[in-house]
Amino acid sequence: MKITDISGGVELRNGVFMPYLGLGTYQADNDQEVIDSVKDALDLGYRHIDTASVYKNEEGVGRGIKESSVAREDIFLVTKVWNSEQGYNTTLQSFEDSINRLQVDYLDLFLVHWPVQGKYKDTWRALEYLYETKKVRAIGVSNFLRHHLDDLLTDCNIVPMVNQMEFHPYLVQQELLDFCAENTIQYEAWSPFMQGKLFQLDFYKELSDKYNKSAAQIILRWNLQKGVVTIPKSVHKKRIASNADIFDFELSNEDMAFLDSLDRDERSGPHPDHFDF
């Protein structure tokens, strides 16, 4: 991944450009809170906005986009089909419901939110249809481990373009990263700060002093240098701005290796093999 500035990104396997830094909206209220955070992010130069059906804030995200000064075609908009909506026909309906709530005609990326056993292959067929009929520009999955991907790849016509996973220094999953890279599946991070838990670790003070950057900025820069697209969530304009201030420094190989070495297979969210929703 070539890292330049906030306008930079990666080219997905189908040639679609995906900005490597985006705004996550998980737990942002579907009111002025998410409207303002989307508008603030776009004003600050972000062009990637991530939401999901289950977040219950697609209406607010759509309003934020409409009220911003940025043209829809310049925004990379992502949402996800929720578990209870999975299956072929129900996924197609979920898509229609999402674009209606978002007040848009198409999505830039549509994801299968979790690998629901017995359903995700039918869900994927629906995403393939949406892609082939040009209602979405790219399709992908979220929370798919290697065995889920192996299973999907045996039957799919289109290889997922993105895999959005929990990713932070305590959960690196390098083998999965490598597998996705080998199959041209772009890795993307959710919960890059482990819901704030990583900020409490003492060693970040040393790194912060060394680079004159916050713990959040160091983690996000590590994400990008690992080749991982990242979508930190915030509803505060100063924090959204701070999260984008990561393009004037570079972590050394030694510090990258140190952050990699923290991996302990520890999650802040559910395990993809053991979720029950």
Automatic annotation (TrEMBL):
Active-site annotation: Y55 (proton donor)
Entry's Gene Ontology molecular function annotations: oxidoreductase activity, acting on the CH-OH group of donors, NAD or NADP as acceptor
A Pfam family reported for this protein in Swiss-Prot or TrEMBL: Aldo_ket_red
Record bears the keyword Oxidoreductase: yes
Family matches, as PROSITE patterns: ALDOKETO_REDUCTASE_1, ALDOKETO_REDUCTASE_2, ALDOKETO_REDUCTASE_3
Keyword Transmembrane helix: no
UniProt protein name: Aldo/keto reductase
Lineage: Bacteria, Pseudomonadati, Bacteroidota, Flavobacteriia, Flavobacteriales
